[in-house]
Structure formats: C-alpha cells, structure tokens
Amino acid sequence: xxxxxxxxxxxxxxxxxxxxxxxxxxxxxxxxxxxxxxxxxxxxxxxxxxxxxxxxxxxxxxxxxxxxxxxxxxxxxxxxxxxxxxxxxx
Length: 90
Hints:
Elements lengths: L1 H39 L2 H4 L13 H30 L1
C-alpha cells in the first residue's frame, strides 16, 4: 500500500512539474497579446456605430504592430541596408 501511494505521489509531482510551466507560459503569452491589443487598438477611438458607441475590433492592435514592424523593415532595407551594400560592392 505504501509503495502504491508513493508511486501515485511521484506521478502527481511529475505531472505538476510538466503542467504548471506549460500553463504559466500559455497564460503569460495570452496576457501579453491581450495587453498589446488593448493598448494599441485604436478602433474604439476612431470607429463608432450609428448610436455613437465605439466599435472595438479585436486583434487590430496586433495587426497594427505587425504593420509597423514590416514598414520599419522596408524603410531600413531601402534607406540603410541597400546603400551600404552598394557602397561595399564597388
């Protein structure tokens, strides 16, 4: 009986050691995504319905940050990287 109880406790501890970090990581990722989306989503400031209530578009904050990152990459490529590459190619 003692041996079975010890095996069950070992299984429980190993399960907790696997489930808790995965759950914490999922929680942290979801919290970061929702925080970014809430802070960068400007749709409720710009868009209103017929009654004057703000319209919230979920995910617009994440899309806007992705667009900003892409535009930054385009600008850096065209204004910094390409001229440096062309200068070294001469």
